[in-house]
Amino acid sequence: KNEVEQSPQNLTAQEGEFITINCSYSVGISALHWLQQHPGGGIVSLFMLSSGKKKHGRLIATINIQEKHSSLHITASHPRDSAVYICAVEGTSGSRLTFGEGTQLTVNP
Amino acid sequence: ETGVTQTPRHLVMGMTNKKSLKCEQHLGHNAMYWYKQSAKKPLELMFVYNFKEQTENNSVPSRFSPECPNSSHLFLHLHTLQPEDSALYLCASSQELGGRAGEVAKNIQYFGAGTRLSVL
Question: Which of A39, B31, B58, B67 is 20 to 30 A distant from A17 in Cα terms?
Fold first, then answer.
């Protein structure tokens, strides 16, 4: 069992829908990262958070340290949001990241 | 544009070839990383360098040989690879390694676009 579990693995939505991607982890962490990977491979860091909630445009990330759970929300989804969203946790002893398998999001027009 | 450039973007090689992947970052970072991403699997950390010194080798076979001549450049030398080594190889950099509590922003990793490697 992977230390970082994401759900769902695949998600298809219609443009405009509210989207939630979940991440659960089983180890102590110093921070949790949400990353976006577009077709072709490039990865972009969306959020790094260690508590509470962060918002950037239509993206919202929340984390519950006690429950070892984080969610990534996308409001008013758009086809350009189609990508793989990856959750990664940073251990307490350094910046080594442990990654989830990713969630493939497809937003149809 | 993340400030981390990888070349080549695509590489096809035979099992007896020797090739090198290159990564360059223009962010003034001190830590650099090599990752392997295989289909349907999470990213796997391969190597970590901090101030040009290797700090982590995640049990990577010796047919992968990293080189870090300075904090801005990272190479991955490949020789006698196997077909199962076909994957996307990603380079990343961060300001530093293991930042102190309250300085976690220094641990954000910036990724290159990757090299898609096919071993025939």
Answer: A39
